[in-house]
Amino acid sequence: MVNPAYTIYGAPGSGSVPVEAALTLIGQPYSVIEAPTWEGESERAKVAAINPLKQIPALVTPGGETITESAAILIWLADRYPEAGLAPTTDDPARAQFLRWMTFIPASIYALYWISDEPSRLVGEDEALQAMVKAAIKDRIVDCWRMMEAQVSPGRYLLGDELTVLDLYVTVLSRWGPRRVRFYEAAPKMAEVVKRVDADPRLAGFWEKRFPFFDGWERLGSAGLAASAEP
Q: Stretch 202-222: mean pLDDT, rounded?
């Protein structure tokens, strides 16, 4: 018997959050297998059979197919449910820029967290060197946001007046290090967009459960959420 719901391997505050937000807006049922992989091997083992890299998010479709990589999942969901209007269609003039930025984010920004979360993976146990690596990565992420800011012309949302999965993606990742305060400074036009997504009434209950706001959240991390949300 085919499970009628999607299954997401994820965790609060992690890269699964934009996927969960997309499914919430689409209106498709889903369940989450909580797997905060940064907490140890037992959590990574939950994901191993689905994703050999032992990383989240991973999506299992109602038909049993596994999709990994957050950008791929988001694009696939948006195309699978065009009635939700979460991506430009293939004949829309905005499609090229949609694909450009949906690819830019994981290639230029998201991938850096694998290093910054555990610099020892590349530079060993020297704490001073690890601190230098973390600081350099934060600066690089800010530079990437600044470059994107210079090349987009948002309306209400990044690609115009309709919310897409790109807006969900940027909204979540901009809450990770080096935090929203630096994001706002580097990307004031995009800042207005992510604030609009933060305040979307359709997602109010969702944010409260999966990436809650709290006093000072724009400057500080969300303790106990994703490793990517650590200072």
A: 92
